Amino acid sequence: MAIRLVAVDVDGTLVTADQRVLPRVQAAAQRALEHGIQLVLCTGRAPGECWYILDALPQIRYAVTQTGAIAQDLKTGETLYHCPLSPDDARLIYSHVRRYDGLVNFFSGGIVYNAKQQMAQFERYYPADFRWLFERSHEFVDDLDAMVAGWNRPVEKLYVPFSSREECEKAMDDLTQLPYFVTGAGYVDLEVMNPNTSKGIALGALCKKLGVPPKQVMAIGDSGNDAAMLDFAGVGVAMGNGEEALKQKADLIAPTNEDGGVADMLELAIKGEI
After folding, report:
1. For residues 207 and 248, is the Cβ–Cβ distance under 8 A?
2. pTM above 0.85?
3. What pLDDT shows up at residue 186?
4. In terms of domains, do 232 and 180 share one?
């Protein structure tokens, strides 16, 4: 049965290391749309971190963001699925991640909050190439501890890149004792979310709304937080630059993000060769 929807991760998949959507990927996305194939973002990012990707790919109407906490119709602004953490759960998680040397990203209402003082040491936790993205799309607060203590709205997730693999492993050992979904995005990092969601669950909810069965879905990703959507999809694709564990469960291995591997997969779907 022909592929009708392609769910694609962003970092390490859709964009290059320097955050470009390659022209061949743009062209393939347009051809896919002309052949009735919907391209859906399925990312750990908040919507506000994706503006330049959506500018490059105006064909994209639907997005699963924040690692499956929410799915939205980008054209109408309608929320099609939402499974956040409660403020109390978010506070508990925050109290645990603050024990370790990491840059806490607090996702709520489509906004990502960071502590101002931690941004002075950004490169300690995250590649320098991403500083511009944080500065353009995040909110910086003087006292993140106080903000979280008084927070009273749903929280999509907490995301924390750490200063070292040792710190990340200690945090993982701690957080996996709590009743939440803990995964990684491909760096020395952790994401902590409502245990009842994932990229795969949110993608499934979106596909049900759109009337697309799993066997007509292809999912493309590169890291651990993409595993659930590859499990959901009829065709699961790991990028050539992806984690080995993801490649083991994939049906196909695409060329790397630097080579525009998403375009190759879209062309196979267009030709009906998947």
Report:
1. no
2. yes
3. 66
4. no
